[in-house]
Amino acid sequence: MIQENSVNFGNNIDLLKNVKDCTIQCIYIDPPFFTQKDHSLYSEKHKKEMKFSDKWINLSDYLKYIKNLLSECKKKLKDDGTIFLHCDKTASHHIRVLLDEVFGADKFINEIIWTYRRWSNSRDGLLNSHQNIYFYAKSKSFKFNKLFTDYSPTTNIDQILQSRERNENGKSIYQTDTNGNVILGKEKKGVPLSDVWEIPYLNPKAKERVGYPTQKPYLLLKQIIEISTSEGDIVLDPCCGSGTTCVTAKLLNRKYIGIDISNEAIDISKSRLDNPVVTSSALLKNGKEDYYNQDIYKVPYLEILNAIPVQRNKGIDGFLKEYFNNKPVAVKIQGHNQTLQSAVSELLNSTQSKKCEKLILIKTNDSTELSLFNNEIKDDRLTIVDSFSLIASKLLENDKSNSLRTSVCSG
Ligand SMILES: C[S@@+](CC[C@H](N)C(=O)[O-])C[C@H]1O[C@@H](n2cnc3c(N)ncnc32)[C@H](O)[C@@H]1O
User: Fold this and answer.
1) Which of 260, 268, 272 is the best mutation target for the ligand 1 pocket, counting ligand atoms within 8 Å of the beta carbon and taking the most?
2) Which atom of ligand 1 is nearest to the CA of 11?
3) Is 185 found in the same domain as 143?
4) Which residues of the chain have pLDDT under 70?
5) Taking CA atoms, which of 153, 217, 316, 394 is between 20 and 30 Å from 284?
6) Domain with 71 in it: what CATH number?
7) What is the pLDDT of residue 205?
8) Do 126 and 271 fall within a single domain?
9) Among 215, 249, 283, where does a domain finish?
């Protein structure tokens, strides 16, 4: 029999027979997606290529495998257990039908959309930036822990806190006491977690990345395990790959069972379990706004210039949407307390390796030191433009000294 807290090498459908029936609280499956490709990635960290095959005779061969796997998994779930099947547009429409067949259409709970930002070009149609996770239960009465997220900035919190009731016409109205004062509702924990999850894809430099092809982020598994299990429950992943599910379960004080047909996957899972590393996400910690607008006052300048903002780059704040000589045009906005000299050096340093033939620096403040420095700028690519507020303050200065001159002459 397969032990709790273990990762096991072998074919999942065979090995699942060695897992005790009705013992598993949650199963997460991230199987091959029917891409008809071999997936491989060279891991710098482990100095070797890691791969798994996603080639099948045909679609029905693939669907037969998935259906057998699902049937075997169902036997292992506790009566209040749940299953999450991860797939993408390639076969999601077929997989949902299989899940209905094995678990029953009435056991469908949600289709979770995992969405992330991608910058690659889409060949035809819209850029694909999501994957699907089907969430089914073994029975109608299943374990589910409610998670809450923050209200959006546009929510009128004041209204939300007031209790509501239906009037004689069935219309929802605010409840008031006999003196006409509003009655406060129950304490609010936030907005219940929706079925669209925005969690960043693991970037090539993410600390938790081990170099296994299609490795999923810890934060995705954390959310799945938190909504479906309690501490001490067993989580099973029959296609565990680099062991993300097992590592997450361990960190959340759950028990785990991992299975994979690749020896490399088992080795990497074991080493991750010995030394778990997770990446903290600035996006999730600080919110989307913070992530995108670190220097919020620069955004209007970029909008006026029709430029795309660049994040986390000291020297470049944006690129114009329009190219110059088929090359991007980098834009920098002089910081509030920054000298022009330092703004120019930052822009030039950051564009050294970029093939820009035009650089624009928006000057936001003026001083004697700057005008001296202006004469020394030698880079032909650079154009320094005064911001609107600087132009306005120069105009006002001019008008003031003119009227002073007039009043001295007439005085
Ligand atoms: C998409 S990857 C899983 C990635 C994993 N979620 C992670 O975060 O690293 C799919 C995995 O399924 C495994 N696999 C494919 N067929 C299998 C089978 N019959 N039995 C066990 N594992 C299998 C592959 O070796 C591969 O590691």
Assistant:
1) 260
2) 20
3) no
4) 121-122, 153-160, 186-188, 280-294, 367-377, 404-411
5) 316
6) 3.40.50.150
7) 79
8) yes
9) 283
